[in-house]
Design brief:
Oligomer: single chain
Structural class: mainly beta
Strand content: over 45%
Largest sheet: 5 strands, antiparallel
Number of helices: 3
Order of helices and strands: EHEEEEEEEEHEEEH
């Protein structure tokens, strides 16, 4: 609690936290698909890093399956989504769907959407979730709508969580701020005309506390 001694003008400011549904997708195009079949079982090829909802992600493609201990890992392609490295460890529940596009860009094959809890890491070993048996290799290579000229394209949709951002809402200008061309000030209040230091000018009128609060409450939601 302050006393009246040595108090100047109070500093006033406001900010707001805005939440919005996060959603996005990433395409991973595999060129020279037949060459990726030389990758050993259990080893993956990563997509480029992409961002959805302010979080970094990547798709992990296992051309010969992920589980080297399965009876026939080469029979299936495995596909996983990974919450990539961040500056701090964090858990995030998200929904995702992995699919394959046809040559017209339409989803021609896919498994049902899944919801999983991902834990990010400060290194490259964040949690992933996906499908060990995403598609049988024989089924994939039989479909000409999925592979053409030795190329295919995966699509990864991510969402199901809220993206939170903090924005400044209001900040108080200096009481002595004078602008001959001023119109409305930062709080939507009209500047007062007055004589200042012997000359005419227009100076922004400082709102009182109630006006400041009312202006902040009246602002429309961002996004």
């Amino acid at each position: 609690m302050t006393t009246a001694v040595g108090i100047g003008r109070l500093s006033r400011s406001a900010s707001h936290i805005v939440g919005k549904a996060a959603a996005g997708f990433h395409l991973l195009r595999i060129e020279a698909y037949s060459q990726t079949k030389t990758v050993p079982a259990g080893q993956n090829i990563n997509s480029g890093e992409f961002s959805v909802g302010g979080y970094p992600w990547r798709v992990k493609y296992y051309p010969n399956g992920r589980d080297v201990n399965s009876t026939n890992p080469h029979d299936y392609i495995s596909l996983y989504l990974q919450l990539y490295r961040r500056h701090k460890e964090q858990n995030l529940q998200a929904q995702y769907k992995l699919s394959i596009l046809d040559q017209a860009g339409n989803v021609a094959y896919g498994l049902p959407a899944k919801t999983a809890v991902f834990k990010s890491s400060r290194d490259d070993h964040g949690d992933d979730d996906g499908h060990e048996h995403f598609i049988r290799r024989e089924d994939l290579e039989r479909r000409e709508d999925l592979i053409k000229d030795d190329c295919l394209t995966f699509r990864c949709d991510v969402g199901g969580f809220t993206e939170l951002e903090t924005f400044p809402l209001a900040r108080e200008d200096s009481e002595d701020d004078e602008d001959d061309d001023a119109s409305d000030d930062e709080f939507g209040l009209k500047p007062d005309r007055h004589h200042h230091h012997g000359h005419s000018g227009r100076r922004r009128r400082r709102p009182d506390d109630k006006e400041f609060v009312q202006w902040c409450l009246a602002q429309k939601r961002v996004g």
